[in-house]
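Supplementary notes for students who missed Thursday's class. We covered one full example, reproduced here. Read the sequence, then the structure, then the short commentary at the end.
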Amino acid sequence: MELDEILAKRRSLRALEPEPISRELMEKMVRAAALAPSCFNNQPWRFVFIRDRMQLDRIKEALSVGNEWARRASLIVAVCSSRDDDCVVREREYYQFDTGMATGFLMLKATEMGLVAHAIAGFKAEAVRENLGIPENAMLITLIICGVAAENPENLLPASQIEAERERPPRLPLEKIMMMDGYDRDGSGQ
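Structure (token representation):
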């Protein structure tokens, strides 16, 4: 699969089939993430893969209302990083940026392998931290809900989520996000 095809195929789908994900596939995702650039090659990212049924159930109990769909996940990946593990240059703290790049690589690899990797913010962070033993100096940035896309999402999702499942949500026009030679405050792209 070419990169453009992977980028176009990557979606934050919610309708998942709870099919097991092998350790081999997880290792491929981590290998892809490990190739991401980071400040001075510090590699501040840490990924906790949760696939044990009992542990998954505990983490799923920490999901917020609206993320009920994630209970069908075969795998959840907790993404962590620490300010202490990466560059701080004046006010710029690179650990979240660098971890975000590595997470993006992981998600693209998952897509290439036919998996859904949907990052969420809706969870009780303290409950997840406690269950996974994440140290206090590490920030729990996101959970990535992983699984296989369901062929019939209408059987798994409420009507309010089905439309977003069928069509990619609209993207901002390039002129809104691309600026030339300076920051464009009015959003005209000039």
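Commentary. The beta strands are 16-17, 45-50, 75-81, 88-89, 92-93, 116-120, 139-149. Residues 3-153 form a domain with the NADH Oxidase fold (CATH 3.40.109.10). If anything here is unclear, bring it to office hours.
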